[in-house]
Amino acid sequence: MKNTVVLAVSVMLMLLLQNCYGQSASKQTDQKKATEYSRTDSAPVNKSNQDWQKVLSPEVYEVARLKGTERPFTSEYEHSKEIGTFYCAVCGNALFKSDAKYESGCGWPSFFEPINKKSIIEAKDNSHGMQRIEVMCGRCKSHLGHVFDDGPPPTGLRYCINGVVLDFEKAKTAEKKYSAGKKANSGS
Ligand SMILES: [Zn+2]
Protein backbone atom coordinates (compact mmCIF):
# COMPACT_ATOMS: atom_id res chain seq x y z
CA MET A 1 0.00 0.00 0.00
CA LYS A 2 2.73 2.41 1.07
CA ASN A 3 4.64 1.57 -2.09
CA THR A 4 1.63 2.36 -4.24
CA VAL A 5 1.33 5.80 -2.64
CA VAL A 6 5.04 6.49 -3.14
CA LEU A 7 4.76 5.36 -6.74
CA ALA A 8 1.71 7.54 -7.37
CA VAL A 9 3.41 10.58 -5.85
CA SER A 10 6.58 10.10 -7.91
CA VAL A 11 4.59 9.69 -11.11
CA MET A 12 2.70 12.90 -10.32
CA LEU A 13 5.97 14.73 -9.63
CA MET A 14 7.45 13.47 -12.87
CA LEU A 15 4.43 14.66 -14.85
CA LEU A 16 4.58 18.04 -13.11
CA LEU A 17 8.28 18.49 -13.92
CA GLN A 18 7.72 17.40 -17.49
CA ASN A 19 5.02 20.03 -17.83
CA CYS A 20 7.21 22.82 -16.47
CA TYR A 21 10.06 22.06 -18.79
CA GLY A 22 7.86 21.12 -21.73
CA GLN A 23 6.37 24.60 -21.90
CA SER A 24 9.53 26.51 -22.63
CA ALA A 25 11.25 23.95 -24.82
CA SER A 26 9.80 23.58 -28.30
CA LYS A 27 9.85 20.24 -30.07
CA GLN A 28 12.76 21.20 -32.23
CA THR A 29 15.04 22.44 -29.47
CA ASP A 30 15.05 18.87 -28.12
CA GLN A 31 16.64 17.71 -31.33
CA LYS A 32 20.33 17.23 -31.73
CA LYS A 33 21.98 20.44 -32.95
CA ALA A 34 25.12 21.10 -34.97
CA THR A 35 28.06 22.46 -32.97
CA GLU A 36 27.75 25.60 -35.12
CA TYR A 37 24.21 26.22 -33.81
CA SER A 38 24.26 29.61 -32.09
CA ARG A 39 21.81 32.45 -31.62
CA THR A 40 24.59 34.96 -30.97
CA ASP A 41 27.39 34.01 -33.39
CA SER A 42 26.87 35.46 -36.89
CA ALA A 43 29.98 33.97 -38.53
CA PRO A 44 29.03 32.14 -41.77
CA VAL A 45 28.64 28.37 -41.48
CA ASN A 46 29.98 26.20 -44.28
CA LYS A 47 29.46 22.48 -44.00
CA SER A 48 29.01 19.74 -46.56
CA ASN A 49 25.64 18.06 -46.91
CA GLN A 50 27.32 14.86 -45.84
CA ASP A 51 28.20 16.46 -42.51
CA TRP A 52 24.81 18.15 -42.16
CA GLN A 53 23.11 14.82 -42.63
CA LYS A 54 24.87 13.50 -39.52
CA VAL A 55 23.43 16.18 -37.23
CA LEU A 56 20.04 17.08 -38.69
CA SER A 57 16.82 15.11 -38.42
CA PRO A 58 15.73 13.60 -41.78
CA GLU A 59 12.80 16.08 -42.02
CA VAL A 60 15.01 19.14 -41.47
CA TYR A 61 17.77 17.78 -43.73
CA GLU A 62 15.35 17.12 -46.58
CA VAL A 63 14.04 20.70 -46.61
CA ALA A 64 17.13 22.63 -45.50
CA ARG A 65 19.81 20.90 -47.55
CA LEU A 66 17.92 19.18 -50.39
CA LYS A 67 15.54 22.14 -50.94
CA GLY A 68 12.50 20.02 -50.19
CA THR A 69 9.07 21.29 -49.20
CA GLU A 70 7.13 20.14 -46.16
CA ARG A 71 3.53 19.09 -46.68
CA PRO A 72 1.22 22.15 -46.57
CA PHE A 73 -0.93 22.75 -43.47
CA THR A 74 1.35 20.61 -41.30
CA SER A 75 3.44 23.21 -39.47
CA GLU A 76 2.56 24.07 -35.89
CA TYR A 77 3.78 27.60 -36.69
CA GLU A 78 1.32 28.27 -39.51
CA HIS A 79 -1.42 29.61 -37.23
CA SER A 80 0.64 30.40 -34.13
CA LYS A 81 0.00 33.87 -32.74
CA GLU A 82 2.70 33.81 -30.07
CA ILE A 83 5.02 36.78 -29.74
CA GLY A 84 8.70 36.06 -30.26
CA THR A 85 11.43 35.34 -32.77
CA PHE A 86 11.84 32.64 -35.41
CA TYR A 87 15.38 31.26 -35.82
CA CYS A 88 16.97 29.01 -38.42
CA ALA A 89 16.56 25.48 -37.01
CA VAL A 90 19.87 24.50 -38.62
CA CYS A 91 22.25 27.23 -37.37
CA GLY A 92 20.28 29.45 -34.93
CA ASN A 93 20.36 32.59 -37.10
CA ALA A 94 17.50 35.01 -36.27
CA LEU A 95 15.20 35.17 -39.34
CA PHE A 96 11.74 36.59 -38.64
CA LYS A 97 9.86 38.39 -35.86
CA SER A 98 6.34 37.30 -34.99
CA ASP A 99 5.05 40.83 -35.72
CA ALA A 100 5.93 40.33 -39.40
CA LYS A 101 3.94 37.07 -39.49
CA TYR A 102 0.47 36.92 -41.02
CA GLU A 103 -2.15 34.38 -42.08
CA SER A 104 -1.74 33.94 -45.82
CA GLY A 105 -3.78 30.74 -45.99
CA CYS A 106 -1.17 29.20 -48.29
CA GLY A 107 -0.43 26.29 -45.94
CA TRP A 108 2.97 27.42 -44.66
CA PRO A 109 4.09 30.00 -42.07
CA SER A 110 4.12 33.37 -43.87
CA PHE A 111 5.91 36.63 -43.14
CA PHE A 112 5.99 40.01 -44.91
CA GLU A 113 9.60 40.81 -44.03
CA PRO A 114 12.73 39.22 -42.55
CA ILE A 115 14.44 40.64 -39.44
CA ASN A 116 16.94 42.41 -41.70
CA LYS A 117 18.40 42.12 -45.19
CA LYS A 118 21.36 40.09 -43.96
CA SER A 119 19.30 37.47 -42.15
CA ILE A 120 18.35 35.83 -45.44
CA ILE A 121 19.72 35.30 -48.97
CA GLU A 122 17.48 35.40 -52.03
CA ALA A 123 18.24 33.61 -55.30
CA LYS A 124 16.45 32.85 -58.58
CA ASP A 125 14.92 29.39 -58.67
CA ASN A 126 13.71 28.06 -62.01
CA SER A 127 13.14 24.49 -60.87
CA HIS A 128 9.85 22.57 -61.36
CA GLY A 129 9.01 24.69 -64.41
CA MET A 130 8.37 27.80 -62.30
CA GLN A 131 10.17 31.10 -61.91
CA ARG A 132 10.44 31.72 -58.21
CA ILE A 133 12.72 33.47 -55.75
CA GLU A 134 14.26 31.06 -53.27
CA VAL A 135 14.88 32.18 -49.68
CA MET A 136 17.90 30.81 -47.82
CA CYS A 137 19.35 31.39 -44.36
CA GLY A 138 21.86 34.24 -44.44
CA ARG A 139 24.25 32.39 -42.16
CA CYS A 140 24.23 28.71 -43.22
CA LYS A 141 22.53 28.95 -46.64
CA SER A 142 19.94 26.36 -45.73
CA HIS A 143 16.84 26.41 -47.92
CA LEU A 144 13.91 28.05 -46.08
CA GLY A 145 11.23 28.57 -48.73
CA HIS A 146 10.31 31.16 -51.37
CA VAL A 147 9.26 34.80 -51.51
CA PHE A 148 6.31 35.98 -53.62
CA ASP A 149 5.02 39.48 -54.39
CA ASP A 150 1.43 38.87 -53.28
CA GLY A 151 1.93 39.79 -49.61
CA PRO A 152 0.28 42.48 -47.48
CA PRO A 153 1.55 46.04 -46.83
CA PRO A 154 3.95 47.51 -45.98
CA THR A 155 6.21 45.32 -48.17
CA GLY A 156 3.73 43.53 -50.43
CA LEU A 157 5.87 40.41 -50.00
CA ARG A 158 5.01 36.93 -48.83
CA TYR A 159 7.89 34.95 -47.39
CA CYS A 160 6.49 31.44 -47.55
CA ILE A 161 8.64 29.42 -45.15
CA ASN A 162 8.80 25.73 -44.23
CA GLY A 163 8.00 25.48 -40.51
CA VAL A 164 10.32 22.51 -40.06
CA VAL A 165 13.39 24.72 -40.60
CA LEU A 166 12.22 27.26 -38.01
CA ASP A 167 12.89 27.35 -34.27
CA PHE A 168 10.63 29.63 -32.27
CA GLU A 169 11.47 31.39 -29.03
CA LYS A 170 8.79 33.24 -27.11
CA ALA A 171 9.54 36.85 -26.16
CA LYS A 172 10.64 37.05 -22.57
CA THR A 173 8.37 39.91 -21.45
CA ALA A 174 6.67 37.83 -18.76
CA GLU A 175 10.01 36.76 -17.30
CA LYS A 176 11.30 40.34 -17.37
CA LYS A 177 8.29 41.54 -15.42
CA TYR A 178 8.86 38.80 -12.90
CA SER A 179 12.53 39.65 -12.29
CA ALA A 180 11.72 43.39 -12.16
CA GLY A 181 9.16 42.62 -9.46
CA LYS A 182 11.71 40.62 -7.52
CA LYS A 183 14.20 43.50 -7.69
CA ALA A 184 11.61 45.97 -6.38
CA ASN A 185 10.82 43.66 -3.50
CA SER A 186 14.42 43.10 -2.47
CA GLY A 187 15.12 46.83 -2.68
CA SER A 188 12.47 47.78 -0.12
ZN1 LIG B 1 20.88 28.90 -40.84
UniProtKB/TrEMBL annotation:
<dbReference type="InterPro" id="IPR011057">
    <property type="entry name" value="Mss4-like_sf"/>
</dbReference>
<keyword id="KW-0479">Metal-binding</keyword>
<keyword id="KW-0560">Oxidoreductase</keyword>
<dbReference type="GO" id="GO:0033743">
    <property type="term" value="F:peptide-methionine (R)-S-oxide reductase activity"/>
</dbReference>
<comment type="similarity">
    <text>Belongs to the MsrB Met sulfoxide reductase family.</text>
</comment>
<dbReference type="InterPro" id="IPR028427">
    <property type="entry name" value="Met_Sox_Rdtase_MsrB"/>
</dbReference>
<keyword id="KW-0862">Zinc</keyword>
<feature type="binding site">
    <location>
        <position position="140"/>
    </location>
    <ligand>
        <name>Zn(2+)</name>
    </ligand>
</feature>
<protein>
    <recommendedName>
        <fullName>Peptide methionine sulfoxide reductase MsrB</fullName>
        <ecNumber>1.8.4.12</ecNumber>
    </recommendedName>
</protein>
<feature type="active site" description="Nucleophile">
    <location>
        <position position="160"/>
    </location>
</feature>
<dbReference type="InterPro" id="IPR002579">
    <property type="entry name" value="Met_Sox_Rdtase_MsrB_dom"/>
</dbReference>
<keyword id="KW-0732">Signal</keyword>
<feature type="binding site">
    <location>
        <position position="91"/>
    </location>
    <ligand>
        <name>Zn(2+)</name>
    </ligand>
</feature>
<dbReference type="Pfam" id="PF01641">
    <property type="entry name" value="SelR"/>
</dbReference>
<feature type="binding site">
    <location>
        <position position="137"/>
    </location>
    <ligand>
        <name>Zn(2+)</name>
    </ligand>
</feature>
<feature type="domain" description="MsrB">
    <location>
        <begin position="49"/>
        <end position="171"/>
    </location>
</feature>
<feature type="binding site">
    <location>
        <position position="88"/>
    </location>
    <ligand>
        <name>Zn(2+)</name>
    </ligand>
</feature>
<feature type="signal peptide">
    <location>
        <begin position="1"/>
        <end position="22"/>
    </location>
</feature>
